[in-house]
Amino acid sequence: MKNPETLLLSDVDVRALLPMKECIGVMERALRSVTDGSSVLPLRTVMRLDGTPNAFAAMPAVVGKGAGASLGAKIITVFPGNDATPYDSHIGVVLLFDAEHGKLLAIADASSITAIRTSAVSGLATRLLAREDAKELAILGSGVLAMPHLEAVRCVRDLKRVRVWSRSGDRAKEFAVRARKQFDVEIVVSSTAREAVESADVICTITAARMPVLEGAWLSPGAHVNAVGASLPSARELDTAAVVRSRLFVDRRESTLSEAGDFLVPRSEGAITDAHILGELGDLLAGSVKGRVNRDDVTLFKSLGLAVEDVAALRHIHGKAVATGTGTSVALGGLR
User: Residue 39 is part of which domain span?
Assistant: First the structure.
């Protein structure tokens, strides 16, 4: 009997099989499963590399129940300093297994899946929380998440202008050149984060900052913020005032209480309590909590990135890859 075959899927394969609009729908289903309990999601395991900001992480999850469930994990290195190199900050693989025999179905590039699914979740949060007439987007950070975040927000709102700021002005300018070629929208490079944020309807923070780059005093009434870049208890992109004045929603409450410095630091200061988290995106999707109550609300989505997002994304990719003959098949064993 032939050994069961596993599909190897490159970054090119992932990008071809996971367009942003489709991924937003995949993320909606995945985040519903987090809130309704139909997925199993342990907290990620992170091993820090001594004397560096770098880490090695394992993120397992089960998406769905019964024979139709998908088992999987993302295994990655996180090297924040790679922003100044040719390498991505997140490098690794996503693994997909079936739930009947534990067969390894697919191994896929994690960098591309992470960039697309992270941005798609921000797009979903923007759809649920930003004002319907939002037209001005501010992006703080010009790394690998900048372009897919622009694409994701454009999927859910009719943008007229995008302002980008980055600590590296040259990289911001390079991003603007590429974005103008890809999208029919005005792109402006801002000299300061404040200049980018003031009067913006939607703000995406996608930096490697450990200390705040966004101040609450800069936010206009009615603004929506997707806080994405910080995923350590001690790191944050938003100052306390920004969190305090916002209606806060998260991808997962348990993860936020364990890992999100944007929430944990203000709580340690006594500025907020756990009750400041109004709900998960899954709660908004289920209609069990309200997002924007009035036009002038400032809303905040704190994104940490969840393994169910990676596994759900690869399950979607794998189904399309099998149907289209995409990827490289390898026999890794598994039969006696």
Answer: 5-113+308-331
